[in-house]
TrEMBL record, chains A, B, C, D, E, F, G, H:
<dbReference type="InterPro" id="IPR000031">
    <property type="entry name" value="PurE_dom"/>
</dbReference>
<dbReference type="GO" id="GO:0006189">
    <property type="term" value="P:'de novo' IMP biosynthetic process"/>
</dbReference>
<dbReference type="InterPro" id="IPR039476">
    <property type="entry name" value="P2CMN_synthase_LarB"/>
</dbReference>
<dbReference type="Pfam" id="PF00731">
    <property type="entry name" value="AIRC"/>
</dbReference>
<protein>
    <submittedName>
        <fullName>NCAIR mutase (PurE)-related protein</fullName>
    </submittedName>
</protein>
<dbReference type="GO" id="GO:0016787">
    <property type="term" value="F:hydrolase activity"/>
</dbReference>
<feature type="domain" description="PurE">
    <location>
        <begin position="120"/>
        <end position="251"/>
    </location>
</feature>
């Protein structure tokens, strides 16, 4: 809050903007940025790059960095990532910029920014090659919330040995995200093998009837194992919910 | 054919009816019965009881018995089963009538009728209690075609041990039918474990979005294992196709 | 396990049944009962009464009581509840039978059965009168898992004061289930107001396009707040997942 | 009418065209333009640019300007806007051309054209950044009908404080349009807070199941508050209907 | 408010109930009744009888009568209507009970209750016989809000003369509700003929693809005339929204 | 047939090709061309350009010209039209090539080819500008079958005067095709005004729910007037069916 | 018209009713009856019994008989048929009442009523037993319009010989209606075999995905043969459209 | 296995990779390649090129060639095919590379690789030109499994003579794949004509409602003949399942 008031005093922002920031959001040309979200639920506000111009994303990212010490951009193509890097490059905070090429996620941290570190683990499990990018988005988000993330890839049910080999490892997590497209059988199988809560993350693979992740989502909704689900390709939501559960576990552990 | 001609000579049927029978179908008040189907593909013509009155079903069953030596009625309630038993009771062929209560299937055999006996095995696998009746319909049909049928029940993927315990047994079959509702993961898992062709048989369990077997059917269509599928609850079709494959194998074995 | 072996020794059950029970499930005429589920995930196996005869449900409930010390029946009409009470009435365990009329849930506990007691709280929030039964099913299941359950009813968003009045109370829970039908706006609003993980529970109210809970489910999948969802009317799944999270929190608290 | 007859007399148009214009529509190469619509309902005929070439749009706009003194083009890209500006540049009426870049709306007024000025107010409320362009289209249309328009942006329900802060302002309007995509909870919340009639304007945001505005539309149809809705992205219709209501209120005020 | 406090003083209700009523809703065994809704928007809270027992509806109606001086029940069968009449029969307010048989609407007014009387008119237009009950529900609600209601029946577009004959009459209304099922062409035709705002009310007639009102609803959403719509069979919502517009017009007239 | 035999004798084609042609279809690299269709039903085989390369279309067109004296290509872009013109340019038959730019239809006639001339009329009615190209495809096909075609454009129901002005003209036709997108009310209105059989031709206009012609198609299926329909944008089918009816009428007239 | 005026003079009906009848429709308690429809298109107005009480149907039938000399009731159960017979029993016209039990169609003719007799033939073809009732409805309607109707049953494509045997017979018709459910292949096959226009009549058989006639309807819309279609089970519409075509042919023949 | 160990010994791969390969899959940068699939079911693992970069596909193909002696790439455009050819060009195994242009299938065989040769035949039947590529994919896969493949093209039901001409040829196969789009009637017709098991392969042709192969798939699910189906365009699955059946027949023949 002090920074906002200082900026007001210094004439860098007006009264209206100060009021907005204190109310929990800041304004850029591309719309308001919800800085308060992080304070409320511990989840960084993600900037979905799809449907925005590189310039709009960069402006939102700069605001996020300015108000919360970091920025999280999802589904950014190369042009957008470059625009973000350039926009935050001159920041006094001397930030680091990391882009994961396969997921299109860009993470910006102000120098000295400390990611929370929770005493709780999230396993992010993916069925096949095509499911990995969406799983990766979930993993980045859970990491930013502060969870210890363990990724387990290529364990689709077409060859059961793969998943059976990894069960012990998955059982060590406090919460499990399972990404799968096509028929989406993996979340059901995993939820039958572990004790922790399982979140299904359907992926938009598959063509024809039930394609684009629909069969996978319906399979999660109909699962004969206990699990909850997010929408198709909603890696951010799955990672954030896993992060919230990890935060609850961490809080209980450190009470 | 001789019987038809004899019946014509004896004045029991008219010329038109004789012509119809020779062309491969017989007429009752409830419509034509396709006696030729059995000759063409080795699959007994099934009489679907749903949407017909007990009297209509009984008339069709009597015609079937008369023209092919047996009758197969599916989804018959008790009243229909009784009507069939009564209708065929006076037949000169002194038939046997078997009804499976859970599937509602009624099988009538003329005395002395010999069910074909194929040198080929069909495994009919079901995920849970609710899937058993539909699986049962498939099993009866495959049996009537002549296959040796082995039923494996209650091996849903929510508890993988169940299916893993039965893999060796299922591997002995020449073709496998796998019935499952809800999320329908079982056919995908089984097709990843066996060498024989697998036919998915989605079952109309589950409520809400993807319920009534839709998720299970879409899961079969999107399966990352190799398999083909029939429509929801189409036990007759799954059993008949398994029977056709068993016939092909039997024919090859006995060449 | 000892009981199973004793029952075998005593000739009450055969070898095959003993083997099945040790493998984690018991057989009744109505199919196998998965006793191991409770051991695996701490969630009692629920017996869905819909689509089964009262006699089938009663047999499964008796088996559940016998093998796990309790039985949980969902969506039971009065006839089924009576059949269950009668079936377990003679049990040596002298069980108690509780039926919640509005939800149709029946809980049977053997005398001396101790429900687990977790140091973790679940809030179950419902939008309107019509949402209460489904919310109630979730509440019963979470209670049986051992969570402390707080029910908050009639806080639909058509009158925001209702929900704003209850926010402090809801914030005390470690995990929140929010049941709503029609347009299903409540889970999104609640997830914007609390820090704990939120599970949406869409309810099959509403008619016309988007009715039967479809709009509510799609609203949860599209929510601009972070939350996960279960299928329409899946009170059991929502309560069980909340219970799993409560177990994780309880385990962390008591480490 | 006089202008039409004068044009006929001057030989600028033929008899057939004159007859058409008097019957209420004019012909260009791209089809007939319904000039009478403005006379009938006070709503300017909008020219939807999508699916037409820049030349076709420009021709229709020139006819609109010619026959009604103004032109309203929606969803125009830059090329189309340029074509329109160029086409009407030579008009004797010396028109002004305004283009709103985010909504793609182009408004052309003949010099001296007086937009109606109604004594009635329309509030146009939008949930988030992505909803603003569609809301903007509604606002432009309502303005052209003559209403006093107040735009309230970025008040999505994920942070209730935003909307609660603006309620008094919204309550001053005679009719309210509420644009929201994703889960579309905002129209329901607003309709619970104000007395005026509310029109929901679903926006095609969101991906996966219920995406592209479907969940938002179904949420409006299922709303537990009283409101009516238009189709996804139908900013023109929402703005025009709000304008019709404003006209009714204005007429009553000035009786 | 005085009545609530008096009831509290008299010991007829407890403190908690008094608080609830002052907060705007009262509690019965069947859930809370939103008495404040009438004060907020002038629309009586309707009690949808479908899915509730006669006793539940009667209890809610008695509370409504008690707290607001009237009760409005929709889709009540005869048993429910009787239960309501009986439940309110002993009320000190000596109420009148009117039931419209075709729509199933029951209106209860306390003796001396004065329905608001607005200086504004609503036309309720119906295409065919099957559309009349749903239109009737809209008409009753608009009347209860206080509008002067004119019903125009049997003017479906299969015979255009019918609707053309009634145009002058419909044009006298300040707002128009148009009920139609099947292909739902009538709202589009009417909105092309009148100046007032039009609300489409799709009706669940028609079978096969697009049946149950779906084609009519989609036709309203796609209309090439300006109009807004409610969900299929949502007579209450259409009537209430028409009432809100009538209230706005009345307020302007009487300023 | 003589030409085929002559070509065989001349060595221009092989025996297999001759046999194919006599059996009613000719082979090109892009597949078989069904020359017999014209002989069977009087409808020229249309070559749908969408999804084929210009070269493939040109080859099929050349075969069509060669075997039937004409070629009809639908949905051809400019490149395809050019390829066709070039491919048939060298033909000994010295054909004429006509392309309708708005519909993308290309008609090629061998010099001296005589289009059949039926004593029967088809009216092709279109609601708006966007419906005209699809209507145009129907008109071209009906013309090629030999009907006298009268096109009536821009008579959408948003302004009833337009269609009422043209009723007498439409009543002169023996069969009527009515093209409309959006809500598709026009076919229902027209079928209520004329005696001749009406064929609805839904057009893929409109966005959001019910868009892309779905509402228009469902409106035709649900119409309260008597009419039949073709699929969305199926101008060829509508024109061909109208042509078949015109042929039947012509045959009756000339008996 | 004279009868109406006489009834007015005799005081049997009032001025308003007389005016209505002359305008083309009569009023009963169950709504208006469109007597003019018959005059306009030669199609008797059908009274759909589904969703109406026997008394309502009987009243409409009596009015129909009174104003047009006949009545056509579709989908009447036995109670409705009895009510109709009883209602028209006392009519001075001494009518005949025919009910087809399988289709539920009831035809009432005043004594001396002469059904039109057209010089044109309609073939009504049905695939299987379950398709016959819907086909029957079409046949009755076409007969009432006056066409010579030939019914061809049980010619489904599972046994091609059946349909090939009947081709010559079907080719004698001027227009062909083809009823089929399940996969609905028959209309496509027939349209490939005959020259006359073909109308597909999808039937609501089949279960699971694509069931209830949906696959059959979509098959007609996608047919690679030229045909038009009506909605699922719309026997009346198919028969009436066939009748309209027959009328056009008859008119041409008798010019 | 020896090769893997040799590669390990030679230091070409690490211990982890060796372990993976022995467990049945190999790792490339683009994910794991399931080499064990071929050993398990005799079906070569196909690399679906869609959604992968040419480089990713080439890497997977090289791994496949390395571990199984061949590679099968489906839906490869020219750039991908070139990348594959280039990537395997330097392999010591001196492979052959065959690309089918119409199907986009690329087959790579190491020098000396012997495709299995089964004593069993697969017929691959296609309705029209547009169905041939998908059918071709099935044919290539069945060939690679080792079946003798006979392709029968252009036998759509719009002209029954075509398919009747080819029946004897199709009857010689042990299993039949039938590819068809649009209304998809061909699989039903073929299954009524032959004794062997039939697999429907719906193709994504057709536009409007039921387009993109949906009507064809639903037609297969609803077929009144016995057959099973795969998803739309799933040529690989159809060919692989046919191959599995051929393998079963071959095994029986050679016992």
């Amino acid at each position: 809050m002090r920074e906002t008031l200082a900026a007001l005093e210094a004439g860098e922002i007006g009264v209206e903007e100060a009021e907005s920031r204190l109310a929990g959001y800041a304004t850029t040309d591309a719309g308001r940025f919800d800085a308060a979200r992080e304070r409320r639920r511990g989840i960084p506000e993600a900037i979905l790059a799809e449907g925005k111009t590189p310039a709009e994303v960069a402006a939102l990212a700069a605001t996020a960095l300015d108000t919360t010490g970091r920025a999280l951009v999802t589904r950014a193509d190369e042009a957008t990532a470059t625009a973000v890097a350039s926009a935050v490059g001159d920041a006094e905070t001397d930030p680091t910029v990391d882009r994961d090429e396969r997921t299109g996620t860009v993470v910006v941290h102000a120098a000295g920014f400390e990611t929370p570190s929770l005493d709780a683990a999230v396993a992010v499990v993916a069925a096949g090659t095509a499911d990995a990018p969406v799983a990766g988005e979930a993993a980045v988000v859970a990491s930013e919330v502060g969870a210890a993330v363990d990724r387990v890839d290529d364990v689709g049910v077409a060859n059961l040995d793969r998943i059976l080999d990894q069960v012990d490892r998955i059982r060590e997590a406090d919460v499990v995200v399972v990404a799968a497209g096509r028929e989406g059988a993996l979340p059901t199988v995993v939820a039958g093998l572990v004790d922790a809560p399982v979140i299904a993350l359907p992926v938009s693979t598959g063509y024809g009837v039930g394609g684009e992740g629909v069969a996978a989502l319906e399979g999660a909704l109909q699962s004969c194992s206990v699990l909850t689900t997010v929408n198709v390709d909603a890696g951010f939501v799955a990672g954030a919910q896993a992060g919230l559960i990890a935060r609850a576990v961490d809080a209980a552990r450190t009470e």
